[in-house]
Amino acid sequence: MTALDDIKVADFSWIAAAPIATKTLADYGATVVRIESRARLDTSRVTGPFRDDKPGLNRSGFFADLNTSKYDIALNLKHPDAYAIAKRLIAWADVVVESFTPSVMGGFGFAYEDIVRWKPDIVMLSSSMQGHTGPNREYRGYGGQGSALSGLHHVTGWPDRVAAGPKGAYTDSIAPRLAVAAILAALDYRERTGVGQYIDLSQVECAISTFMGAEVLDYTVNGRVAGRIGNRSPEAAPHGSFPCLGDDYWVALAAETDEHWIALCRVMGDPEWSRSEHFATMSARLGNVDELEELISAWTRTQPVHELVERLQAERLPSGVVYKSLELFEDPQLAYRNHFRQLDHAEIGMVGYNGPAHELSETPAVLRWAAPLLGEHTDYVMTDILGYTPAEVQAFAANQVLD
Amino acid sequence: MSTAIEPPAAALLGPYRVLDLSDERGTLCGRILASMGADVIKIEPPGGAPLRGRAPFYRDEPGPENSLAWWALEANKRSLTLDIGHEQGKALLRRLALTADFLIESFEPGFAASQGLGYNDLHALNPALVYVSITPFGQTGPRARWAASDVTIQAMSGHMYLNGEPDRSPVRLGVSAAYWHGGAEGAQGAMIAHHVRRRTGRGQHVDVSMQQAHIWTLLNTTMTWQLARRQEIRGGSRRKERGHNYYSRHIWSCKDGAVHFVPIAGGGGKSRQHSYMQLMELMKEDGFYEPFLDAKDWNGKDMFGITQVEYDAIAERIASYFMTKTVAELYDFAVNQQLLLAPLASTKDLLESRQLEDREFFVDVYHPRLGKPFSYPGVFAKFSATPLAKPRPAPSVGEHTDEILGELGLTEREIVDLRAEGCV
Questions:
Q1: Which CATH architecture has domain A8-211+337-398?
Q2: Each residue of A77-86: pLDDT tens digit?
Q3: Where are the domains of chain A?
Q4: Contact residues on chain A for B222, CB-CB shorter than 8 A
Q5: Best interface-test mutation with A: which of B27, B119, B222 has the largest number of A CBs within 10 A?
Q6: Quick check: A333 and B225 CB within 8 A?
Q7: Which residue of A has its CA nearest to B212?
Q8: Structure confidence at residue B237 (pLDDT)
Q9: Choosing from A172, A218, A247, A270, which is the catalytic residue?
Q10: What is the per-residue pLDDT across A93-121, written as a single tens digit (0 to 9) for each?
Q11: What is the pLDDT of residue B242?
């Protein structure tokens, strides 16, 4: 038995946030059927990085990483004959997931209100940028916009410059965890009561609700608008990243207690300056943080970062290398945890896929196969799951319903 | 709706109890389960949890009931103070564990076991318990016990290297993102384990690594390295992303603020083609259009051949155009014409957002102790049959100790004795 092998998902979602959620369900054993189409390609298939920089619908590492263990059917939903096939798939499923702008599923005849008429206990999750109601419901966006709209950009970077980040489609990594929890909670509720439901999940609301709570309250309670403070902490110094020997190497460290400060001084060799009154207490260190950071940087610049972190860790100081992407593949802890799971793919070849960020002791996730080629499982889904005859499948293909 | 098997409970996770022993690093997990209606009991050391000392504070006055981080993260929970270093405290916790469905902890790996409260101990006692551990690197492995803080975990996830300006140090996200991702990952893992328990009656250990959770924020960085051997680097408002060998701009200044916008070089696709076309129309209207701006299909067939010179020429034109526009003008246009553009919202902007207002996202939460309501961020999703629980003020230190011990069947006398011993 695998954890979720009793769950069936009709997955109309695309790009990143919702596919990450259905990937988690699939890696834990759920039968997830993704509906794709050549008539409307998933943006992540046409987005790099591609194997050896050669673009191709089945060569994107971005798509691959987010779609392991899924079945894939190429079905052109804009074709009038596609309705019956998709309806059969939804009738088979416990869960429908989609991430279009709100009017799209209704256009196909598959808004929640439509489905619930013939499948009253369906659990349906719509993942969107700003939610399925309100004046901005048709707003289109990716996770970088989600991060900006939820306030994460505004608090990230340097106070004297425009916001610096975060990198990439950040809210695409916040929403999926909540989506999985929400779907499983709704299935539990359905099992207890027989009642299904619709979940309207906005990436922006997910991010504000879980990541911005104290910042929002600081405004609504104290009237203070949270700004950018670089790497500093209002409560600890030193706290940040400091330059090391070599090309763009940095050490991150946080001296959150007096013990941490003493440990840092020990590793620095207890230099004269560290005994100054300027740094004798946490409030003194916070008050003289410019001077403190300069002195620490002068020292870290002479240090090779990996050895330095070993020495800091030996003294129990919270610290780490500011990893470049290739260094993730050399990290012994990630290797021990088997974070990058090697899977073979017909066009991409052998490559490390991001695995789950948690381990389950009894029913671990298994990345069962690499991401599917576009339409890789069309025949299997049509015949084995939906019960069409091979002749029917051929006719659908000839009419471009299956593309 | 179909026939109910049992009467619908008021809440999604109404029947379930969670013991939350975690500190700041894991506490979002219980907060998420509580918003879905679980009975979450925060177990604090006598005197209160360390998170109560975390700024910012109500009116900037430090105090155990004044931390706004506590307000945000512990809402909807009950509080029980318990000294788990004390023998009777341990006995009480074991008794509570018999009544619980989930336990969440974020101690250093090995600590809970050293107290006789590890996964193996409590699983033996209550085989149905889902035991969630949320730590920087996971429970085992060569670096499982490394000292860490949010900033060092963000660094070791590979994300921090990509944030910031090329002429300055890498910069972290301005919130404790590694902790929050760890907590959310815990909630996801807990619900997967819960599903298994519904089928088998058996709980298990959910072992979260915040480092791994935050690696998931990279999205395509690790594939870019593996497939194209290119390392993404930070560039502030400009970056090399998606394996591009040129810098592209993400943040643009305008008349009265800044917006996030990826006109081209965002991976193409129909929505980005549409977005760029709409921008061209707007620039034409305002006399800012130049033919070189759409000389090629930058988001379609020509997207892989963009050079730095081409990109910079386009970016320069757009940048000078945006300086003639306000954030509100650009965002209105984005909403109406499906431009892939967003304001860099501050918390003040969030409270003034007409979209969030229309969705009644922010909710007033009345604080009896202070005699007034405060506006809180609302729930993370809208459920049609079982709306999530609106925030209930976070508990004061040990607010529910008597209530919870009473539910356990302890007599008033026993509670008085425990209190005298400093155990609760």
A1: 3-Layer(aba) Sandwich (3.40)
A2: 999 999 999 9
A3: 8-211+337-398, 239-324
A4: 65, 325, 328-329, 340, 352, 354
A5: B222
A6: no
A7: A357
A8: 62
A9: A172
A10: 999 999 999 999 999 999 999 999 999 99
A11: 59
Return the structure tokens found at A5: 């092998």
**Which among B177, B193, B345 is the nearest to A149, CB-wise?**
B345
Is B367 part of the contact surface with chain A (CB cutoff 8 Å)? Answer: no
| Four-way CATH pick for A239-324: 3.40.50.1360, 3.30.1540.10, 3.30.2170.10, 3.30.70.360 | 3.30.1540.10
Nearest Cβ partner of B344 from A163, A250, A351?
Answer: A163
Write down the pTM of the prediction: 0.97
**Partner-chain residue, chosen from A168, A209, A250, that has the shortest CB–CB distance to B219:** A168
Averages of pLDDT over runs of 10 residues in chain B (424 residues) are 46 96 98 97 96 97 97 98 94 97 98 98 98 98 98 98 91 98 98 98 98 96 92 73 76 94 84 94 96 93 89 95 97 95 97 98 96 97 95 96 95 91 84
Cβ-defined contact of B271 to A140 (cutoff 8 Å): yes
Give me the pLDDT at residue A31, please: 98
Residues B123 and B255 in one domain: no
Question: Any catalytic annotation for residue A247?
Answer: no
Give me the CATH number covering residue B185.
3.40.50.10540
